[in-house]
Q: What sequence folds into this?
C-alpha cells in the first residue's frame, strides 16, 4: 500500500462528492478509501497473492493509473467500457466483484450491476434479487454488465424464451435513465465478439456470437443490430469448424462500430458520448502466459512495459500479414479475411489470409502464417502439462484474434495479469 498514490483516494472522494445527484456517500475520508482497498486486497484468493509477492504493489499501481484516468473535470466524466475476454475461470467476473462491487461501493459511487452469468435460469434466486435491487436503482453513476451473451430470446430447445432480465434492462436504459440522469461511467463486460463459435458460452455450440449480438439487440430494442450483421462472420460447410473473423478496417467494422458493439445494450443512453469513450479490453495472466506467442511473453517476464510491448509485438505480427494483403491487389481492405486454425502435429496456430482477385469474386488463399503458441510447460506455468487442449487452443486463437484486431484499429487496451486481480 505504500506505493498507492494519495491522489487515488482524492479522486475517489472527489468523484463521490461531484455526482451529488446520485445517493452517494458524501465526504468519504481518505483513510476510509485506503482501508477499503486494503480490505479488498486481503480478500483476494491466496492463489494470486501467494503466487507473486509483488502482487499488491502492481495491483494498486494499476488502480492508481486507472482511477487517475477519471481525474478529468473532477471525477468520472466519460463512459468506460471494460472488455473482459478469455476462457472460463481466468478472472473476468472476479474483476467485476473486486473493482466494481468492492472499490466503487467503497468509494460511495452508486452503481447498477447486471451480471447475467448467474441469471440464465429464470428460477435462479439471484435473478429475482437483481430485478428488485439493481434494475430499478435510481440514478446510477456506473452501470456494469457482465455475461451479456446469456440474454437470449430462445431456450435450449429453440422455443421462444425472452430472458427475464430483458425488460428490466430495457426499462433501466430507456426509462429510468432520462437524459439528465445519464450515468457518468458505464463498465461493460460483454461476450467476445471476435471468434465465431464460443462453445463455453452457449448451450448450443452451433449458436454463433453474431447471433448472440442480434438476439440481445432484438430482445432490448426490437430489431437485429446492423452492426452485428456487418461484422462479417462467415460460416459454411467448409469453414464451420474454423474460428473466423473478418479483418475489416474502416468499413464496415470501424473503431466506432467496435465502441457501439461493446455498448450495444446501452446505446440509447450512451450514443451521444460514444466518441469520447475509451475501450479497455483486459488480458489476464492465463492468456498472456498460456496462449499468446512467445515474443509477447518474454518482455513481460522481464518486467518491461507490458502494454507497450504487447501492442508492439502484435503490430509486428500484423506487419507479417500486411505484405500478403498488399500483394492481393485488393479493391478495398475489407475484402480480406483472416482464418485462425490449429495444426495439431506442429502445435502451431495458422493464420490463413483469404483475399480476392481484382474483380472481387474469386478467393485467393495466401500462404499461411505460423504462430507458435506458448507451450504449457513454459516456466511461467504453475502446473506444467504437455499439450494444449482443444479448448485451450480455442483460447489461443480467440485471444490472439482479439489482440490482432485491437492493434489493427489502434484501440487502446490494458494487459491485466490475473495475479494482479
A:
Amino acid at each position: 500500500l505504500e506505493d498507492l498514490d494519495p491522489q487515488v483516494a482524492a479522486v475517489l472522494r472527489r468523484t463521490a462528492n461531484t455526482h451529488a445527484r446520485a445517493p452517494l456517500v458524501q465526504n468519504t475520508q481518505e483513510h476510509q478509501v485506503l482501508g477499503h482497498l486494503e480490505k479488498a486486497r486481503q480478500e483476494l484468493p491466496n492463489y494470486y497473492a501467494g503466487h507473486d509477492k509483488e502482487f499488491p504493489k502492481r495491483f494498486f499501481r494499476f488502480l492508481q493509473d486507472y482511477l487517475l484516468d477519471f481525474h478529468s473535470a473532477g471525477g468520472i466524466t466519460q463512459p468506460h467500457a471494460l472488455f473482459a475476454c478469455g476462457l472460463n475461470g481466468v478472472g473476468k467476473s472476479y474483476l467485476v466483484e473486486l473493482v466494481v462491487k468492492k472499490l466503487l461501493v467503497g468509494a460511495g459511487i452508486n452503481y447498477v450491476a447486471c451480471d447475467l452469468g448467474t441469471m440464465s435460469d429464470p428460477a435462479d434466486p439471484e435473478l429475482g434479487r437483481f430485478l428488485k435491487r439493481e434494475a430499478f436503482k435510481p440514478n446510477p453513476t456506473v452501470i456494469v454488465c457482465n455475461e451479456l451473451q446469456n440474454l437470449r430470446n430462445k431456450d435450449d430447445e429453440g422455443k421462444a424464451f425472452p430472458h427475464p432480465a430483458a425488460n428490466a434492462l430495457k426499462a433501466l436504459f430507456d426509462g429510468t435513465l432520462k437524459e439528465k440522469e445519464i450515468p457518468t461511467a458505464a463498465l461493460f463486460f460483454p461476450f467476445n465478439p471476435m471468434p465465431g463459435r464460443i462453445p463455453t458460452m452457449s448451450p448450443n455450440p452451433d449458436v454463433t456470437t453474431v447471433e448472440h449480438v442480434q438476439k440481445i439487440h432484438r430482445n432490448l430494442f426490437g430489431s437485429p443490430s446492423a452492426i452485428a450483421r456487418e461484422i462479417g462472420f462467415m460460416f459454411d460447410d467448409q469453414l464451420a469448424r474454423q474460428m473466423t473473423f473478418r479483418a475489416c478496417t474502416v468499413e464496415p467494422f470501424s473503431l466506432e462500430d467496435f465502441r457501439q458493439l461493446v455498448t450495444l445494450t446501452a446505446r440509447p443512453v450512451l450514443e451521444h458520448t460514444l466518441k469520447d469513450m475509451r475501450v479497455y479490453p483486459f488480458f489476464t495472466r492465463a492468456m498472456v502466459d498460456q496462449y499468446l506467442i512467445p515474443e509477447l511473453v518474454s518482455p513481460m517476464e522481464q518486467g518491461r512495459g507490458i502494454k507497450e510491448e504487447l501492442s508492439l509485438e502484435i503490430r509486428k505480427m500484423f506487419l507479417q500479414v500486411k505484405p500478403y494483403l498488399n500483394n492481393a491487389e485488393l479493391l478495398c481492405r475489407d475484402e480480406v479475411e483472416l482464418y485462425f486454425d490449429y495444426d495439431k502435429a506442429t502445435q502451431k496456430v495458422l493464420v490463413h489470409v483469404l483475399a480476392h482477385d481484382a474483380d472481387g469474386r474469386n478467393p485467393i488463399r495466401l500462404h499461411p502464417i505460423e504462430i507458435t503458441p506458448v507451450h504449457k510447460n513454459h516456466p511461467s506455468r504453475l502446473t506444467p502439462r504437455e499439450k494444449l487442449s482443444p479448448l485451450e487452443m480455442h483460447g489461443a486463437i480467440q485471444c490472439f484474434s482479439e489482440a490482432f484486431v485491437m492493434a489493427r484499429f489502434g484501440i487502446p487496451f490494458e494487459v491485466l495479469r490475473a495475479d494482479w486481480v
